[in-house]
Amino acid sequence: MTAETQRPGDVPAGTPLASLAQQRAEAGERLRIEHDRDQDAVVGDALTQLAVGEAIRRAVRSERGGMVAQALRLGATWDQVAAALDTTVLAAVDDLRVWAEGQRTLYHQHLADGADVLVGLDEEAYGEVMRWVAFGLGWAAVEIRDAPTEQRSRLRVAVAAAPMVDTVGELRALLEQLPGEMPLSLDDHHRALPGEPDQVHTIHPRLVGTVSGLATEAERTQPGLMLTQVYVPFPADDEEQAAVATRKDLPAYGELPRAAHYLERGELRAGLKDVAEVLEEVAHLVGEVAAGYVERGSDAESTLRVETERITHTAARVGKLADEVEAAE
Question: Is the pLDDT at 99 greater than 80, yes or no?
């Protein structure tokens, strides 16, 4: 390799790590002792050091899952593996899981292509690795269960201190206080304050219980971070907006999930009114959108028009019923 290596992609695939380390060291040695060379050559060696160093980092990172598997196969324990990587057991387990899934995909791709040499993990080897993953999740569960109460309290305090996250910087500041392996999820539905005419959206982070290792011996619940989009009053001061964002009783913003929210709580009037609005939207989709793609005057168009009329009538009847029905005591 020469000073012309200025990008990691310039390094030939499959170059041994020992060779890469030697080439990087040689470039560094030239920089240290040869001060009277051409400027372009000096810059080239500096860039070679950077490019080869990055190629080494990528190669080592890509082999990390395989090295974890090898260590476990040879008898290392999960806490020893985590210590060797200077990380948590949960993070090490996830590295192995991601690597195993990628290797299984690679194997099946080669199999489908009829390759002479099959690379990756077949189902038997994949199953063996996933048994290590399940065992590692169980080990990590013990770690988290035995974590100091103060650690769990810090998570709650950190999340509670950020009732609204409106910028990337605010989100980054929050995430920096949380474990990197903490599960992250998004709420399925936006939330909103009913009857408020002027609202703007914000993101409300909250701690939730998440389940990992589902239906295995390692199944456990751990704290996770959920991000919910909430519409809050505007104009309003920060405290008023935060008070709305953190409310647990806010219904969903969309008509269908909001209807479910109300009906499941026995609030028939509000729920049925939202159902009527959903039916009106369905009627529009069937009679206007779908019907616009079939041949004019065809049986299909006629059928869609008939069904649209039925749905519209149903919407009207449900809307009327919303004003009359009462929940049983």
Answer: yes
